[in-house]
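Why should sequence recovery work at all? Because a backbone constrains its sequence more than one might expect. Tight turns favour small or flexible residues, buried strands favour hydrophobic ones, and helices have their own preferences. The token representation captures these environments compactly. In the example below, the structure is given first.
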């Protein structure tokens, strides 16, 4: 059953979505435009909610082309990991609506305006399910052709998107932008810097000790968002994160990365639940987009290798219907917004239009 907030009912009726007034949302959603990007005059926008199979209600921004006619292809967008729909995912969704798609940008479970307690937890299973729930919603929206649905995952939700594509053949095309594999980074550390049994055991012990402490205290200790103020010796990619999450460019009051971050134990389950273990069985098209200078580029290269068996480093490649596109000179954060002007929207549009026919 679909859920919508009452204040958006009129807007949704105008957009062509059926609503159910007997089962309203329990979420409190802001109705002001509080995004980190300007509102487009080419699209209609409203808030919607839907639930995943665990009963968690998810909040989303829905963007629809103003000149929409007939059933359109639909796209669900989420990420980056620790961000909210008012940041990168909303920007991507609005651009997709400008280009003829019905797009929803959603907050994952336990974050932003979405439901789920306790707050600021993450789960490879539940966060993958969040994408599938968005597909449920789009599949039953009168504006959308259920045979033409794709997904976009940004940063850590790029890995979740690839995992969702391996699980749900309703997803006809998948794009991951500047992706992180959250399982790989938690298990190995950056660049396999913590990839020994003894190092993993030390992390397990630390998380176990924190669980005991949290249970005693009745609260969950937060890990902290992007470090602020920046130390002089901060790595350059941390400075990039700071320039986005901690400045007016990308700061948002509900974003964990902009504020106090995830719970310390929030990512524990990524330690032994690999996201990409069945990526090689994805039959539908996948596009991976990454910056040449991104510290995280190897995650997309690893995902491409998982799907195709082909190892590449620092260059674009295509194997069957799987493609890795490397953006020259771009960093990880350059693909978060339009400041650097390097997000290849034309390529993204053509990818989805070619594959959501």
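From this structural description, the recovered sequence reads:
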């Amino acid at each position: 059953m679909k859920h919508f907030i009452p204040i958006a009912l009129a807007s949704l009726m105008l957009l062509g979505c059926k609503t159910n007034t007997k089962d309203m949302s329990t979420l409190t959603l802001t109705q002001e435009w509080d995004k980190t990007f300007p509102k487009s005059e080419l699209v209609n926008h409203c808030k919607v909610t839907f639930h995943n199979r665990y009963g968690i209600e998810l909040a989303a921004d829905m963007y629809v082309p103003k000149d929409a006619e007939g059933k359109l292809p639909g796209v669900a967008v989420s990420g980056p990991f620790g961000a909210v729909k008012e940041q990168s995912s909303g920007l991507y969704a609005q651009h997709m609506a400008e280009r003829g798609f019905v797009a929803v940008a959603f907050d994952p479970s336990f974050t932003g305006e979405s439901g789920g307690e306790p707050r600021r937890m993450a789960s490879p299973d539940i966060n993958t399910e969040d994408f599938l729930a968005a597909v449920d919603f789009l599949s039953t929206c009168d504006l959308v052709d259920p045979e033409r649905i794709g997904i976009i995952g940004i940063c850590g939700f790029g890995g979740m998107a690839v995992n969702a594509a391996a699980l749900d053949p309703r997803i006809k095309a998948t794009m991951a932008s500047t992706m992180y594999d959250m399982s790989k980074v938690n298990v190995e550390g950056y660049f396999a810097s913590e990839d020994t049994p003894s190092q993993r055991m030390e992390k397990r012990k630390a998380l176990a000790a924190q669980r005991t402490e949290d249970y005693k205290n009745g609260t969950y200790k937060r890990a902290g968002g992007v470090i602020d103020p920046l130390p002089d010796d901060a790595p350059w990619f941390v400075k990039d994160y700071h320039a986005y999450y901690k400045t007016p460019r990308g700061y948002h009051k509900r974003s964990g990365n902009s504020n106090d971050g995830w719970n310390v134990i929030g990512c524990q389950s990524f330690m032994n639940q690999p996201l990409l273990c069945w990526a090689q069985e994805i039959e539908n098209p996948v596009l991976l987009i990454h910056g040449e200078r991104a510290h995280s580029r190897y995650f997309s290269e690893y995902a491409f290798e998982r799907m195709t068996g082909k190892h590449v480093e620092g260059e674009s490649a295509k194997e069957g219907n799987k493609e890795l596109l490397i953006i020259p000179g771009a960093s990880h954060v350059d693909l978060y917004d339009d400041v650097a002007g390097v997000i290849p929207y034309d390529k993204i549009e053509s990818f989805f239009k070619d594959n959501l026919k």
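A few observations help interpret the result. The first strand starts at residue 43 and ends at 51.
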